[in-house]
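User: Can you help me understand a structure? I only have the sequence.
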Amino acid sequence: MDIDKWFSKLLDDPCNELIQKAMDEGQIPVGYSCSYVPDVMLSVEGLFPIRMRAPGITGTELADNYLSSVICSYTRSLLEFALDGRYDFLRGCVFAASCDHLRRLYDNLEYLRRPGFSRILDVPHKTGDAAITWYTDELQGFAKALADHFGCDMSTDSLSKAIRENNAFNAILREIGELRRSDHPVMTGTEYHHLVIAANSSPKKTLLPIMEKIRDDLQSRDPLPPYRARLLLVGGHLDDPGYIGIIESQGGLIVEDRLCTGSYPGLQPIPETDDPIAAIARHYLTKTSCPRMMEAFPERAEDIVYLAGKCRADGVVIQILKFCDTWGVEAASFVSYIRDAGIPVLRLERDYRLSGEGQLRTRIQAFIESMGK
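Assistant: Let's start by predicting it. Here is the structure, written out as tokens:
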């Protein structure tokens, strides 16, 4: 299978063929917009989660009437797609009060184009015991709302089953991801990001046999041609593998990522306990590792240095969306911390829509050359 070609076609349509197939079988798609939304709770029998994206968007003329120009382009793109009816196939949407921008998206959808089911989760800014207890209570109310609206089973057994299936699927993705990190990688970071984004925006049960086949086929694939540098990609939301493709076109192979839409820490297993909602609350609150969380910068920064060493990265690329307040502030501190650790680092700002390819190529090429590669 040509991974880039097949998955590019799949990801071009927010209501792709796998979603259509699941809907034809009676499954209900529910959209979400942030990694703090526990998508595993939308994976119980009868439901499946879809991370909202705006592939191929060309402008945000409609959304710009309602959102400020200093709201990030991801938020404006989602509102544009919603106002254009591109998410009408979703039976509900779940948001997290994770930043002011996504809160404004929720507010506008409430009165402009309210989904059949609409919920915003109140996410604490800390990860201590009190915060986890708070978020557990929040998710218990969320589970009841899902059961009341969709008639789905949100019992302990049902949620435990969803956790087991989620962990099994993510284990396959982690196994595939390991193939990027070897001394002689057999897949590119672009290919792998296709798989991760597809997993976020397609029903996992339908996608599972495809992922299993890819994993098996990669075992016998020849190593990639020589590349100039091994890179760790860090940052917030990134759902366009084409961005990684441009980086890799200059010889910088992405061997690991630490993105809110990436493999780490998003694919880590959820503990299987007798209280699945408490386990889910603790997992999503402590593992997402977003700059919005207070008092945890040292852990996040050290995590990047650790990952860079683990995957033997020659350098770190930090990508952030323009006007993303949380990542904009944190990225500046990351640059200093990573440089002090003796690791070359490059910070890039971008729009949600892929643009400025020429400038991006030039900066990546200069960064790799600065490392003597």
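Now, to help you interpret it: Residues 196 and 262 are 7 Å apart (CA to CA). The longest helix spans residues 156-181. Let me know which part you'd like to focus on.
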